[in-house]
Amino acid sequence: MSEGQDGSHDATASQSKNLGTPAFGDFSHSDTNVVDLEQSFASALEIMKTQAVSFYQAFKGLPKERFMAVTAVYAFCRYADDVVDEGGSSALPQLDDLERSIRALFEDGTGPAGDAPSTFAPTLPWWPAFTASVHRYGVQERGLLMQIQGQRSDADFHDIESTDDLIEYARLVAGSVGRILVPILVRDRAMIENEDFMQACEKLGIAMQITNILRDVGEDIRERDRVYIPRDLLKSHGISREALQGLAHADAASFKERTEPRQGYAPSIPRNFIVLWEQLATLADSLYLPYQHYLDQFHASARIPLITAAKLYQAIEQAVRDHGHDCFTRRCYTSKATRIRIVTEIQLREKAPWKIS
């Protein structure tokens, strides 16, 4: 989009496939109306507001239409992730259905159709908002299919062997989100054709996913029997899977009921694990950097929300450190005071008018 009024688009971008920006109401669905669409966006907003606090706090500073599009594509990604977390390998048919719906959406440009139409998409409350956002901002099929592919690897999960495998996994499940969001956030959508730029956006998603993994080691073991830390790193640091399982199940009975450890309880995190954890945190930190070289390519209204999302997520690493690297018996969050401080610092530097409420 141009730097001018939100909703304008330049000629170069509009001439590229899938880069057009029809209005939200431009549907061929006869059963789609304005009220339904408003309700659908409200559903997407609620999903993001309750399940992605850092993203919600960061991106709510966008102009309304861009922000609501972000909530809609987040709902798609959240759905793909949730069906796998809840169903494991039994979720594969749902992912197949979701993929058919996405492919049909791009085949006819109007929504789920074709030889094998989806039976579930119309019943998902966020689906009309999602298809509207895809049409308006030219969200790319590649990123959506990458997301589904990544979730398939979780549905049929095998422990990750190497750091390269970890990066590839994170590229699919989270780097894809970078690709999905670019058309909504970018200043000139011709940049979608710039692969260096797109890879920088992918790397930001990869960094966030590694941060997620570092925060949720214990939860992933307890609830899903998954270890995302690469086997070669565990071996090089002398750590067994069984040792991680032991740490994850320590004091697990009260884990879900608390955000602070039991009075007097301080799990002993082995030094070799802390060294490994910091090695992966350093990798994540390096991947948080490349997008910054392209900040001027994002729409002016999107730059501060994007920086904020990155900084809030990266701050989770420090929250884990502040709690003695206990990513086994608790989920570490940044405090509201920390979030306010981060956002305020960005606002002052960029002279932004919005703030956390």
TrEMBL record:
**Does Transferase show up as a keyword for this record?**
yes
List GO molecular-function terms, semicolon-separated.
geranylgeranyl diphosphate synthase activity; squalene synthase [NAD(P)H] activity
Q: Report the top EC class in one word.
A: transferase
Q: Which InterPro entries match?
A: Isoprenoid_synthase_dom_sf, Squ/phyt_synthse, Squalene/phytoene_synthase_CS, Trans_IPPS_bact-type, Trans_IPPS_HH
- Specify the species: Bifidobacterium fermentum
EC number(s) in its UniProt entry? 2.5.1.-
Q: Which GO terms describe its biological process?
A: carotenoid biosynthetic process
- Output the Pfam families linked to this UniProt entry: SQS_PSY
Its recorded name reads: Phytoene/squalene synthase family protein
Q: Which PANTHER family match?
A: BIFUNCTIONAL LYCOPENE CYCLASE/PHYTOENE SYNTHASE (PTHR31480)
Whether Nuclease counts among this entry's keywords is no
Matching entries from CDD domains are given as: Trans_IPPS_HH
Q: Where are the transmembrane segments?
A: none
